[in-house]
Amino acid sequence: MSIPGATDSIDAPTFEQILEMDDEEDEREFSKSLVYDFFTQAETTFVNMDKNLEEKDLKTLSELGHFLKGSSATLGLTKVKDSCEKIQHYGQKKDETGSNDITEEEGLKLLRTTIEQAKTEFYEVEKVLKKFYHDE
Amino acid sequence: MDSQTGGPGSSNSSDFVRKLYKMLENPTDENVVRWGNDGDSFVVLENEKFTKHILPKHFKHSNFASFVRQLNKYDFHKVRHNNEENGQSPYGVGAWEFKHPDFKMNNKDALDNIRRKAPAPRKANQPPDDMVIPAQQMDMMNSQVVASQAQLHALEGRYNELSVHHSMLLQEVIGLQKTVVNHEHVMQNVLTFLHGIDAQRRRDSRMGPFTQNATGVQNGNVEQPNPHVTPLEDDNPASPLQHASKLLNETNADVMLNPRNLEHMNEITMRMNGTLTTPPPEFMRGAARPASRGAPPSASSTTSMRVGDLDNLVYPVGQTTGIDPMYSEHINNIPYPMPTKAAEPSDARQDVRKKSTQVDPGWVRAPQILLVEDDPTCRRIGSKFLYAFHCQIDSALDGLEAVNKMNAGSKYDLVLMDIIMPNLDGVSACHLIRQFDNTPIIAMTSNIRSDDISMYFQHGMNDVLPKPFTKEGLLQMLEKHLIHLKKPVASHVDGMVAPQPLATTRQVLKEEESPAKSPATTSNWNSPNQLPGVSPVATNVTEEYMHAVQTHPGAYAVNPMQPNPYQTSAQIPMPARQQGGHRRQISDIAGGDEMNNPAKRQQIYGAPLQPQPLNPIIQRPR
Lengths: 136, 622
Prior knowledge:
The complex is a heterodimer of chains A (136) and B (622).
Chain A: H1 12-19, H2 29-54, H3 58-75, H4 78-91, H5 104-135
Helix pairs in contact in A: 2-3, 2-5, 3-4, 4-5
Chain B: H1 15-25, E1 33-35, E2 41-44, H2 47-59, H3 64-73, E3 77-78, E4 96-99, H4 119-205, H5 210-218, H6 225-234, H7 239-250, H8 253-256, H9 259-273, H10 281-294, H11 299-314, H12 328-333, H13 343-355, E5 368-372, H14 376-388, E6 392-396, H15 399-407, E7 414-418, H16 426-433, E8 441-445, H17 450-458, E9 463-466, H18 471-481, H19 504-513, H20 518-522, H21 539-551, H22 563-568, H23 585-596, H24 598-603, H25 614-619
Parallel strand pairs in B: 5-6, 5-7, 7-8, 8-9
Antiparallel strand pairs in B: 1-2, 2-4, 3-4
Helix pairs in contact in B: 4-7, 4-9, 4-11, 4-23, 10-11, 13-19, 15-16
Keywords (chain B): Coiled coil, DNA-binding, Nucleus, Phosphoprotein, Transcription, Transcription regulation, Two-component regulatory system
Subunit structure (chain B): Homotrimer.
Family (chain B): Belongs to the SKN7 family.
């Protein structure tokens, strides 16, 4: 089972094991609702991120990054997950590997671009997934 | 006359020498002080004027003697003219001529060679010496520090190792003591029984005090049998019996073995290991009650009390039998996914997958799982997987809810705990839960750096399931920690479901669950974080893992130390002196029953004794 057009943004084995949990392959009730709930969750999180970016609340940004990282990882949305991990690190004033310290300004700057990047990646994969669920 | 400004070429020379040179460059004082005729010395022509006017200008003092001393320090020498014919200086009688091989007119660069001598050389050399010696000392100190650090580390490791061994031994010893006591009780019991038979046999020939004996027992009065045995003994009981009684009487394990100290030590050890949960008071009370009813707090009550204690004490061994993060070797043994060859397991996985999404791991009953997870996506997938594994799922949205649920008395077979959660994180939640409960708790997290992991273990977690987890990884975890709920295992659960024929899928799974394959199967883990199938797992890794599994078999058993006393007991001869004769039959018999049914006994943790006292009443009069 492959998801067309998402070879690098979706980790196939991870996503497949979720698809396998669908009782009916035609309906895909479980995975679809899961994925669509994730869309909502991600949208909300991005709104929160923007808000906290304005308030320069790095700690909350890091938490939000971690939060979205968990669910995107569970779905196998590799790219989004990676960006969220970076957000988590930057919010802790660490570089993207999480091992070196950076300043708050650097963190904010990196957060700004990375959040945008995460959004882009998310909307891309959302499109792919929506297509996958509508077309099947 | 300008104040002295060191020329560029003379920057290395000493201040004094530069000032001296500067002074001589000034032609206005020529009649007082000047270069010598050959330019390789300088001459103070008029001592008094020089001291009064020139010295202060250049050296901030007007002390000719001190000027000369200074010159001497720099290895200038007064030029003497004694050897010359008139012994007179060419510059006049009062003139002082000074010379230094490197102090020459028009050779500023040579000034650099003029250094302070005598004390000066020493002083000049001192700093380098100081530098050298401290450096060596530093090196030495450093190596000493490193060495002692290593030593400390080794000691720490050794200490941890020893304390693990110590607590293991303690529990062994306590177990052994218990066994010995139980044996003694069995022996006493047997003797009592034999005495009874013996007495009856003799009663058959000539009427004995049968009625009295019977009523005494039926009253459940434990003190009663004693006086009856004695008269019987007066009545010539069989001599082997007498002999055995005597032997038993000579030593009494209850008195000889004082397990209190050991228990105390044990408790301390476990406190230090941080996972001791003090035995719930109701257990203590429950254990104490039947004993105190029977007799004054004699040896008898101590025994039952202790047995009750032990059940509680031995049970929550926590990290000492599990993977102890404090025990450095264990860091390598932490069972979290190692990159391994993916080929073989993945085949198996494919099989499983194709066969069914509803994998039945073959539980004797549906395991109760508490899933603690704030992220709805993870929670739903986790629940779905668990459901597919035939588990009953309860979920909590954060650590606080989890603690509350468990504190309220909900019983689970396993807790899957996210780490980073609002309100109360998983580690803190686990720490709190460990104060009153020992249900296996598995950290479910993407933070799996080794220091994170050792922190999880330190706070009482039993294992780590890296996120995002796979179905196989999750199943692995369940089977590892719920092995006692698996069907083929001789089970102590009442109402056990009859074993069902193995499904094909199950066989595959069963194969996977064997410990030998654990490392490989954990690698089924499909995390993008992981380097998939990087290299075949090194054999020694597997062995180490195996070793860890074998060395700590208790890690995954509910009550690891408990079975041992029953298995290893037999050899210890322990004659016992029976103080109060046979008045402890009730606990004796209870003990005997425990012996015969270790599995059952394990189950009834806190209060093994209460149901038993009926037995003697039913059995004895025969």
